């Protein structure tokens, strides 16, 4: 009986001490948002670079941030198609669409704060930007 009481007391004390750390961290992170920038790079038009700024929800996807920018800035538009296997696929940005005959498409790149440019292994519907990332939508060829 004494053993059961001491185990229950230990569990209670441990829960009491650790619970504020767990719940404070999770709740404060969920409510935070952070800034990112979106660079549209298209060497075939003028101006070839357009940069947009927005805040993104904690663990929010890039597609949500793009929709947010599109809703408030008439200089940024995009279209996607829904692929049943892979989700949203970026088709056009600012009226310029990729063309299989011309081997053109919109490439997703990301420049984190350290300055390196990476190619995510997911698309706009799954990519989760980090704080202060510069997301690059680059019109390019394959």
UniProtKB/TrEMBL annotation:
Domain Transcobalamin-like C-terminal: 62-140
Stretch forming the signal peptide: 1-24
GO cellular component, as recorded: extracellular space
Listed Pfam families: DUF4430
Coiled coil: none
InterPro entries from the UniProt entry: Cobalamin_Transport, Transcobalamin-like_C
PANTHER family from the UniProt entry: TRANSCOBALAMIN II, TRANSCOBALAMIN-1/GASTRIC INTRINSIC FACTOR
Entry protein name: Transcobalamin-like C-terminal domain-containing protein
The species this protein was found in: Ameiurus melas (Black bullhead)
């Amino acid at each position: 009986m004494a053993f059961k009481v001491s185990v229950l007391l230990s569990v209670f004390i441990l829960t009491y001490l650790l619970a504020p750390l767990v719940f404070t961290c999770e709740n404060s992170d969920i409510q935070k948002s952070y800034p990112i920038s979106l660079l549209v790079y298209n060497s075939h038009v003028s101006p070839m670079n357009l940069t947009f700024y927005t805040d993104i929800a904690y663990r929010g996807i890039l597609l949500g941030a793009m929709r947010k920018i599109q809703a408030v800035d008439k200089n940024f538009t995009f279209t996607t198609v829904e692929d049943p296997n892979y989700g949203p696929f970026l088709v056009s940005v600012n009226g310029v669409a990729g063309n299989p005959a011309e081997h053109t498409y919109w490439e997703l790149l990301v420049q984190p704060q350290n300055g390196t440019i990476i190619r995510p292994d997911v698309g706009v519907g799954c990519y989760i930007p980090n704080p202060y990332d510069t997301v690059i939508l680059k019109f390019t060829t394959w």
